[in-house]
Specification:
The chain is of the alpha/beta class and 337 residues long. It is built from 13 helices and twelve strands. Helix 1 crosses helix 3 and helix 11 packs across helix 12. It comes from Thermoanaerobacterium butyriciformans.
């Protein structure tokens, strides 16, 4: 037989409304009363009904995650599962559930967010990327709905976001190759519609400028954040120029770059050195093992969730941002000229 709030109230010698307030973690209820109610819940095996809990607290205890592409594409890149793992650890500790939305394009993405917000399905949202032409951020800001972004927005006014210093990280990667004697350095990234790609391109250009190395547009290419995307971008570059090193802003793309180099008759790293980004687990087992920039993907997820929970607990929380440090992981894909 189902145990009701009235049964718990009777056991705890309080009113049913007091039990509801305890479930909602109302700060006006004393610690002693809360302990008595929780004890009464445990004895008969009472489990708060999620809908009743939502009605009592006006909270769903659910966080919405907005994926920037279809589920098939997103989960093929280890970045997204790892960042979600970080979010889920924080959510679990705070007794929140996750609602994940995938979409095929930006319009579907926006509609998914509108459904979450207007349908009161979630208390807050984490956007897993930041675009240069982002419609979600201004809409959420106008709705005054709690959200955080993984990735620095172009317009960060009134937005809580978490990111790496992507300009500094790309500058670090490029300078590493320059210190190894390379001057003909290519740059391969995802689409420039993503702010992260723009920032890393700026970091690459900055390192070249600081070392008096001219920027050559034929050494720069963008494509999908995938192995095939890396392959296609590298092939386009090799048809025009032959770089001695490549900065690739995603490890999965790096695997495609290596494949393209081999198909073109080049050896890695003897003919072309390579440095990637993200330090995914597979990068240590690539042939050759990949030198890469570790962006602490798990920590990006953790910090984005923690920031969102601060907003949910304090509606007056001011816009804030967190920069997660990066580090260079040296392996075998780079050699000195």
């Amino acid at each position: 037989m189902n145990v009701t709030i009235k049964d718990v109230a009777q056991r705890a010698h309080v009113a049913p409304s007091t039990v509801s307030r305890v479930i909602a973690d109302n700060p006006r209820i004393s610690k002693e009363t809360k302990e008595r109610v929780f004890k009464a819940m445990e004895e008969p095996g009472y489990y708060p009904n999620a809908i009743a809990r939502s009605l009592a607290s006006k909270m769903t205890y659910t966080i919405g995650l907005i994926m920037p592409r279809s589920a098939e594409d997103a989960f093929s890149n280890p970045f997204f599962p790892e960042v979600m793992r970080g979010i889920s650890v924080v959510a679990h500790n705070e007794k929140y559930d996750l609602l994940i939305s995938t979409s095929g394009n930006e319009e579907e993405e926006k509609q998914a967010v509108i459904n979450m917000v207007k349908g009161r399905k979630v208390d807050g949202i984490v956007l897993l990327c930041s675009r240069t032409t982002d419609e979600l951020i201004p809409w959420l800001r106008e709705e005054k709905f709690p959200f955080t972004v993984i990735g620095k927005p172009l317009d960060s006014k009134g937005v809580c976001w978490v990111d790496n210093d992507n300009i500094g990280a790309s500058r670090l990667a490029t300078n590493y190759l320059i210190k190894h004697g390379h001057k003909e350095i290519a740059f391969i990234s995802g689409s420039l519609e993503f702010v992260v790609s723009l920032d890393r391109l700026d970091g690459y250009k900055l390192a070249l400028e600081e070392n008096n190395i001219p920027f050559v547009k034929e050494l720069v290419a963008q494509d999908e954040f995938s192995e095939d995307g890396g392959y296609n971008a590298m092939m386009r570059i090799l048809k025009q120029k032959k770089p001695t090193a490549v900065v690739v802003t995603d490890d999965i793309m790096s695997f495609g770059v290596i494949r393209a180099a081999i198909d073109y008759g080049l050896r890695v790293p003897q003919d072309v050195s390579l440095i990637g980004f993200n330090n995914i687990p597979l990068s240590a087992y690539a042939n050759p093992p990949l030198t890469t920039i570790d962006i602490s993907t798990f920590e990006l997820g953790v910090k984005s969730a923690e920031l969102l929970l601060k907003i949910l607990k304090n509606k007056d929380y001011m816009a804030d941002h967190i920069i997660v440090p990066v580090k260079l992981i040296e392996r075998k894909s780079c050699i000195k000229r």
